[in-house]
Design brief:
Layout lengths: L1 H14 L7 E2 L3 E2 L13 H12 L24 H10 L9 H4 L6 H11 L6 H6 L20 H7 L5 H10 L9 H7 L8 H28 L5 H16 L10 H6 L1 H4 L4
Antiparallel strand pairs: 1-2
Length: 270
């Protein structure tokens, strides 16, 4: 019981802001800070806050304390519920280090494209809408899925373009779920093949190639009114990653069809 009350008191003190500071002692306002290093609001103020918080609490002394999972009405935790919670609510921070982006096997223009993507600086429809470039009616994804075209939606969660990743997973014999943000996916994707440096490097190149081809296909639909099928896009991704990597792996140029079927096996790192 005492631990619960301590928690409520801490919450009350944390909620005390400048505007809630009590005026007492000759009309002087006692402010936060000072020599005490903590919240120095008047006793009446935080006691009133505490009373307000406790007014809706019904303590049951005949029952044991237990954890409640607030994401479900049943208050029962499940992996499925946790997965939905993580995928519905976006991450507040997605860290992609600058050193991990600069890949010497990838053309500079593609690296710069990825840099803009991670910082949400690409001219997606939602970004153009915020800048006043397009009307509100034109904000939907070009693939026709009916969702707003954000970077995370376009590259990961679109019914059309997002499905490309699962085809790439099957090609590489990998299995995973797509995270919410492109930054998280960039960090996750290379690690799916293990910690071997060569595999990490190859998978990162494939990630660049896939994202680049998705962006090119999106622009092709908008500006040229042309589009490719999912299988055609995957073939382009395989071909582009092959071109980028064959300079690094001289034997790769002699095994084009092997790369098409099983890239890690043909490189001897399967």
């Amino acid at each position: 019981m005492s631990g619960f009350l301590d928690y409520l008191i801490c919450q009350c003190i944390r909620r005390c802001q400048w505007r809630r500071c009590a005026s007492w002692g000759g009309g002087k306002t006692v402010r936060r800070g000072g020599g005490g290093g903590g919240c120095l609001c008047g006793k009446r103020s935080w006691w009133g806050e505490l009373t307000l918080l406790l007014s809706t609490v019904a303590l049951q002394v005949d029952k044991d304390d237990r954890w409640l999972w607030k994401a479900e009405t049943s208050h029962v935790y499940s992996v499925c519920s946790a997965y939905k919670l993580l995928t519905i609510h976006p991450s507040t921070v997605s860290v992609v280090s600058a050193s991990s982006i600069w890949n010497k096997d990838v053309p500079l223009k593609v690296v710069l494209f990825a840099w803009r993507l991670f910082r949400d600086r690409l001219p997606t429809k939602m970004n153009l809408l915020r800048r006043g470039v397009i009307a509100n009616e034109a904000r939907l994804c070009i693939a026709g899925c009916g969702s707003e075209e954000t970077s995370d939606h376009l590259f990961l969660h679109c019914n059309i373009y997002g499905s490309i990743w699962y085809t790439i997973y099957r090609w590489l014999n990998l299995s995973s779920v797509l995270p919410f943000t492109v930054g998280d996916h960039f960090n996750q994707f290379p690690a799916l093949g293990g910690l071997a440096r060569t595999r990490l490097s190859i998978l990162q190149v494939i990630w660049f190639a896939t994202s680049w081809e998705i962006w090119k296909e999106r622009n092709n639909r908008i500006f040229n009114d042309k589009h490719c099928s999912i299988l055609q896009l995957v073939d382009k991704i395989k071909s582009l990653s092959f071109v980028w990597l064959k300079a690094k792996f001289p034997s790769l140029s002699l095994n084009y069809h092997g790369w098409w079927l099983s890239p890690f096996t043909i490189l001897g790192i399967g």
